[in-house]
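Methods — Computational structure assignment.
A single polypeptide chain was analysed. Its primary sequence is given first, followed by the predicted tertiary structure written as structure tokens.
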Amino acid sequence: MMQASRLNTAAQCCFFFVLSAFSIGGTDQVRCDFVSGSHILRRCFALSRYGSEYFLSRELSWLEFEQRLLAMAAAPANPLLERLKYLAITSTNLDEFFTVRVGSLHNRLRGGNKPDLAGMTASQQLDVLSERVRGLYRGMGETYSMLCCELEDIGIRILTDAALLTEKQRTYADTYTEGMLLPLLSPVDDAALIPSNVPALAVLFEDGGFAALPLPRLLPRLVSLSESPQVFITCEALAKAALERLYPKRRVRLCGMYRVTRNGDIDADADRSDKLPKVVRSVLERRGCAEAIRLETEADMPDKLLDKLKKRLGTGRRDIYRASFPLDLSFLRSCVCDSVRDGDGLRFPAFTPSVPQEVARIAEGENLLDVIARGDILLHHPYQSFEPVVRLLQDSAADPAVEAIKLTLYRLSDDSPVIDALAAAALSGKRVTVLLEARARFDEKNNLEYGSRLELAGCKVIYGIPRLKTHSKIILIYRREGKLLRKYVHLGTGNYNDATARQYTDCSLLTARPGIAADGAEFFRALSDSAYEPDMEYLTMAPYGLRDRFIDELRHQQSLAEAGLPAGVFAKMNSLVDGRLCEELLRTAEAGVDVRLLVRGACCLRPQNNLRIRSVIGRFLEHSRFYCFGVGADRRVFLSSADWMPRNMDRRVELLFPVLDRSSADNLCGDMELYWRDNVCAAELCADGSYCPVAPVEGQPLTDAQKELLLKYTS
């Protein structure tokens, strides 16, 4: 079959690995073996036809996404507390951007400073990024000031100076400082010892001495002083006011807030999976002392103090940003939004995700597996509940006919019900094998802790595949039904995280189709046997030719258009960065195929004739990956865990899966068409890399896709 031949070709130049715990009687370690062969994958070819003028910088494109997110924080049409959340998300996203993407650019500087798709070297990008980010900081400062004024209009005030306290407030603040803050303030004499992204107070004494005081992580950034009206003061304001009490025998000359961001683009790897936990812990330690790539200070930081910080941290002018707002605005979510009582129009209306009727009406004595056996279930989160996915594991744990459960995990919620169900299944005697990716960035510690808990319950836990991150979302359940061992599968575009499932848009497919189930078994067998080449009919697995599968689909549409037949491509993803796929999209549009792309974040491709690109930012974070090739009855609809990025095609284990039930596919395509018609939250990418809001033409009704989908599924 064509699918099998693609996999066989890819296997000749990709390394193989052994995950023997996925096999009955296997051990708990993974070895990485290499198979020699000719490097003949298409990804090995350089771009041949299209110059840099067709492409955009990934990093600059990502900052455009940040700008659109900031616009949501400034938009008066959004509820006030939701706007605070958008501003907080802008701040945390920018932290991750510097930690990972700017960190990567610093690494590239040391690796030859080669140009990217858009023809920009790392040093050129860093120069442009610095100026763009300064503009973003100005916008964040203006938005923060505006939102604080609007908060005061509803009786909420945030103070940043202890001198503004009333006598009653000062008494409470002094008590809080003595009892809570001072015992946790731990000065260090070296600014370079402060962890990444932790706000700290720099102090210069009259005797020339220096101290840095990181704000205690155990305390909230905002301290509530009164409830009516609600008055808060920042933790740093109290820390500044307490310096004389902290240093009674020294005179403070200068002080100011700063925050350092360190290079987090440090990957963990090992030649065997059983070594990964130790390697990951080592990487977490290394990140704590990595090079400083950003120095943020409050706007009025004295120059003499700034010079001392620059010298100690080794940061240049390009890396320094003065902020007219409190450093690290994530507290707006945890301290303000979560503590403010509900009021008219302050938040988006509450909603209850729906559950498909066939799930809601499970007969007594049945479980979810019985329902799946009767037909596919396709869920569109968060409009439809994530609960059926959790219930699948819970019912499987309780079902005596279920013999084994295999799945992959990437990111999980705190107090995850998924972990509870897996532990229960193992304790009941079922064979539970979990590939829990220990290298999921910023979730490493959480995943290692969950892994230990699962191991204690009797699960076989694999912490990853050497040199490949496992990003696929798949559950495979083996159930004894008479003399048959039937397989049930869940496939998803998003994580097994019940918390983000209420905030991110994703899709889940629950099926017992023999073909897909057989491919699911092939998937896990490919992880367990270094010499085995998976023969899949319905699923496509990265790194075994996923890019080639997409290219084949695009070229089929090209051939249809060139023959004068209907053709089309409609795709939705988080990022479009892969050079080969970008090139193939250009060819597809040139062939006359109508190409429509919904790309939430970074997009390296400029729009062309027949190729339009839009982005939707709304109440929920768009996270689903949807790929539709063809039009009408001939269209082929897929979902995937993978974006169109080199890492997803070459350095991760991913899955692409079809939506075979025609009714489900039609319904899903209808949902995606709503996104394309959105003229409230959508923006269209222009040739210069900027985004223009999609506005309704005269007589056209307003369409907010997410709001329409909420009405469709929850009303």
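Note: The chain has three domains: 80-337, 351-532, 542-714.
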